[in-house]
Specification:
heterodimer; A: about 350 residues; alpha+beta; five-stranded antiparallel β-sheet; 10 helices; 18 strands; about 30% strand; B: alpha/beta; 23 strands; about 30% helix; globular
Chain lengths: ~350, ~500
């Protein structure tokens, strides 16, 4: 089960979180009240150049001191505060969400094309692996993830997502089956500017995890979706693939199809499949991945999970259900279901 | 002091009521168990190795063979086997030989690993209705791809892929030399792999002319003896394999007795007829990983960089570090042969006591290569003890790209694993060069049997993958999540990097 909804405004016009809350709530049947979350792009304009690092703390003493020591080692905390929350009946506050606006000292990460990203990635991995009682769940620039265990509307009200304004939203309603329903396991999953929501189960997780870990990413969240964020970071940021090519690596065409391609495309696709065979994902899934200038939706190669795309004016919607899209935009006319494995990309134009 | 005769292993009985005195058993037994006498068929049970050739040829099912236990004074430490070995060595003063794989009483790790299947939360995939991809490419892959992006948004590939072997199933047949086995056995397997779209190894005995039609599906071997190796031989193979060691006898070389070196074998091996073919343990130009690198590169240079070069080693304690060195030597694949790997002949002390199981070796090599970030630099081929399709699936989950089978292919041709290949009397025409025995194996029929076996395993593998919700082999490779350990201790689970059942 699980329900996903995402929307991007190509002109970067801002939308508050109220309609995405309603759209997600309409898919309550796809969840079990054990996890929901929202990712919003463009929500921290005052700190747009800084990394917004969201951390769940079990307590505000030992883990917080350790995280802050680590942040101070690698850069400067320009501002920090508790993420405001409002108690809800259905949500037991297990963690305290905190946010830092952080500027890395790039000279500390030599030999990297993207030293600031590399520092933040290192911090995220280090905290999540080594600091007990702390979990970084969002770490991009001018973006924020807000998630917890609860129903979509409760989580939205807990963070008051209607108070945030973003030009790109992703939201997820969770029905955990394999792993416990806990705050860290709720979607979206995020690393740097990548946020991911996912409906399904990645049966290749064991392979993907071992692959991504050999590139210095540590999987610590006990769930398959985590690897998708890391794989996108590896393939696009570090290896320079476009989002479309990255999706082609993650959900490649069948060999049979490759054999029918024109020679050049065949060579290209074979190379992609051979090189990134261990990154390829199997099992039933519908996934939406957001980055500051795009949203990408794709399903598994035989489409074992639903994925619906809506387009209207400047907005592209990606969801598990048409009803969710119509909740946001009742006037929408272009609604379709993409081919299995085929990426649907919505990009900002500015 | 006379030790005297030891108890016979088998009892061969001919049911006189059933026997019609056709004499087929006499004719078929290459070990001289049967003798036709006026009063009927007489057996010399002592000669029997339980190859079952007589049973298979008897038209009246008149023959039965039983193990014939004879109790020694029981002792938990000084077992019958240990005592008999001492008797034999006290008489001969020689190294004891054994054929086929490890016969020691070690637990089989494959049988302590169980596979996964989907229920409810994700769907199993039905291979009859959905595509199931078992195609596998063996060879080096780049760590990442380089592109050029033009202003028109056209992307073109800069990275050139190096040659890989394309397998339609991740099951290949490992190296067994012409000399150790017969030409008919070779022909049968070569025909089978070329029909299936997979590969087989030549072994270190060179490539007989009769196999040239199948050369695109043959991997030629370069062992320390360099038998049959010249540039023509290298050119003919689809890939080249340097043999450093083999699972049945890590650390020692090979020996084909002169009696087996007939005219044909002598031509193929490029050695004089009747001479012993001795391949020493070390390659005398390889005393370090740097030397190995030179040989790998020389072979690539000799074949104009058109062929993948594999390096085969026996699974030993430090196999992971050795494999990492091999990966850096430029090899395209590392073949790891576990301690259950078969052989024509090995000192039984090696066969039964040296090396480690393939399951642990593959898991350790895969882990080490990933830790060093070079897993894509080299493919892993697992061999030595692959008995069924489930073993193939488990080996792949533990990190292998593909497997070699050996004994299983021989069994498909009739071999009963009697373990006496080194005597050259194989009654099935497989491990022998005696012309009358060799003709017993019909290469076309045997090819069909081998093909059927690999086809059947491939179907089973597809079903196992579908049950686990996986439709391509890439997603099974190294997928430890799809395995659980059953009755394994924690240290073994740690090496295999799998959870216990229920976890």
């Amino acid at each position: 089960m699980c329900g996903i909804i995402g929307v991007i405004d190509k002109q970067r016009e801002l939308m508050d979180g109220s309609s995405i809350r309603d759209a997600l709530s309409i898919m309550d049947e796809r969840g079990s009240g054990e996890g929901a979350g929202y990712a919003a792009y463009g929500v921290y304009p005052d700190y747009a150049d800084l990394y917004a690092i969201h951390v769940f703390y079990d307590n505000l003493v030992e883990p917080k001191t350790q995280v802050e020591d680590l942040l101070e080692t690698w850069g400067m905390i320009e501002h920090d505060e508790e993420i405001p929350t409002w108690e809800q009946n259905g949500i037991t506050k297990i963690h305290t969400p905190w946010r830092y606006f952080f500027r890395p000292k790039t000279r500390l990460m030599q030999r990297s094309k993207t030293p600031d990203d590399e520092i933040v990635k290192h911090i995220v991995m280090e905290v999540n692996k080594s600091i007990k009682g702390a979990l970084v769940f969002s770490s991009g620039k001018n973006i924020g993830v807000f998630k917890a265990s609860g129903w979509p509307e409760e989580v939205a009200d807990f963070y008051r997502v209607e108070k945030y304004e973003g030009y790109l939203w992703l939201a997820h309603n969770r029905y955990p089956t394999n792993t416990p329903g806990w705050w860290g396991g709720a979607h979206p999953f995020n690393l740097l500017n990548w946020s991911v929501v996912h409906n399904g189960e990645i049966t290749s997780y064991g392979t993907n995890r071992r692959y991504i870990e050999s590139f210095g990413y540590d999987c610590t969240m006990y769930t398959d979706t985590e690897v998708v964020a890391y794989l996108m970071d590896l393939l696009v940021r570090r290896h320079g693939l476009t989002q479309e090519l990255a999706v082609r690596a993650l959900a490649p065409p069948f060999w049979e199809e490759i054999e029918r391609m024109p020679e050049n495309e065949q060579k290209f696709t074979t190379a992609l499949r051979l090189t990134y065979g261990s990154a390829m994902m199997n099992g039933p899934f519908a996934i939406a991945v957001a980055s500051p200038d795009s949203i990408v939706g794709f399903s598994d190669r035989i489409k074992l999970r639903p994925l619906v795309i809506g387009e209207h004016d400047n907005r592209i919607f990606i969801s598990s259900e048409e009803a969710a899209i119509r909740t946001i935009d009742s006037a929408i006319s272009r609604i379709y279901m993409p081919k299995a494995g085929h990426p649907i990309v919505g990009r900002t134009v500015t | 002091m006379i030790i005297g005769s030891r108890p016979t292993k088998f009892q061969v009985v001919v049911d006189k009521n059933q026997c019609m005195l056709c004499g087929r058993c006499v004719e078929n037994c290459s070990y001289n168990v049967f003798r036709m006498e006026p009063e009927g068929i007489i057996t010399n049970t002592r000669n029997c190795v339980a190859c079952h050739r007589c049973i298979s040829q008897c038209p009246r099912d008149a023959i039965s063979i039983k193990e014939r236990p004879c109790d020694y004074r029981s002792h938990p430490v000084w077992t019958a086997q240990i005592k008999e070995n001492i008797f034999k060595q006290a008489e001969s003063g020689k190294i004891l030989l054994g054929g086929m794989g490890n016969a020691g009483q070690y637990p089989i790790l494959f049988d302590h690993l169980v596979l996964d299947a989907c229920q409810v939360t994700n769907p199993s995939i039905d291979p009859l209705r959905e595509p199931m991809e078992l195609r596998t490419y063996i060879g080096k892959k780049p760590k990442q791809l380089e592109f050029i992006q033009t202003p028109e948004e056209d992307t073109s590939l800069v990275t050139e892929l190096v040659p890989n072997l394309k397998l339609e199933t991740p099951i290949m047949i490992g190296h067994m030399s012409y000399g150790a086995i017969s030409l008919n056995a070779h022909k049968a397997m070569a025909k089978a792999v070329s029909e299936i779209g997979t590969f087989m190894g030549t072994g270190e005995g060179g490539l007989h002319e009769a196999l040239y039609p199948y050369q695109n599906n043959m991997i030629v071997q370069v062992a320390s003896g360099r038998f049959g190796v010249d540039v023509n031989y290298l050119e003919r193979g689809a890939a080249i394999e340097i043999k450093i060691g083999q699972g049945a006898k890590p650390g020692i070389g090979g020996h084909l007795p002169g009696e087996k070196v007939c005219a044909d074998v002598s031509c193929t091996r490029m050695i004089p007829e009747g001479s012993d073919a001795i391949s020493p343990a070390p390659h005398h130009d390889i005393y370090s990983i740097e030397d190995l690198k030179q040989l790998v590169l020389s072979l690539k240079e000799a074949t104009e960089w058109k062929k993948p070069v594999f390096v085969k080693i026996a699974a030993v304690h430090n196999v992971a570090a050795i494999a990492a060195g091999i990966a850096r030597s430029g090899a395209d694949a590392v073949v790891i042969d576990g301690f259950r790997g078969g052989t024509g002949a090995a000192p039984s002390v090696f066969r039964d006591h040296v090396g480690i199981p393939i399951e642990a070796a593959v898991a350790a090599v895969d882990a080490k290569l990933r830790k060093q970030g070079i897993r894509n630099e080299v493919s892993i081929i697992a061999s030595g003890g692959i008995r069924q399709s489930a073993d193939v699936a488990k080996a792949i989950c533990l990190g292998a790209d593909a497997v070699y089978i050996g004994t299983a292919a021989l069994v498909a041709m009739g071999c009963r694993v009697c373990g006496t290949c080194y005597r050259g009397l194989c009654s099935w025409g497989i491990a022998t060069q005696r012309p009358d025995l060799v003709t017993r194996l019909n290469p076309d029929e045997a090819a069909n049997n081998v093909k059927n076996l690999i086809d059947a395993w491939t179907l089973e593998l597809a079903e196992l993958m579908g049950a686990a919700g996986i439709n391509s082999i890439e997603s099974l490779r190294g997928n430890r999540d799809r395995l659980r350990g059953y009755m394994l201790d924690q240290s073994m689970l740690d090496v295999l990097d799998v959870n216990a059942i229920g976890a």
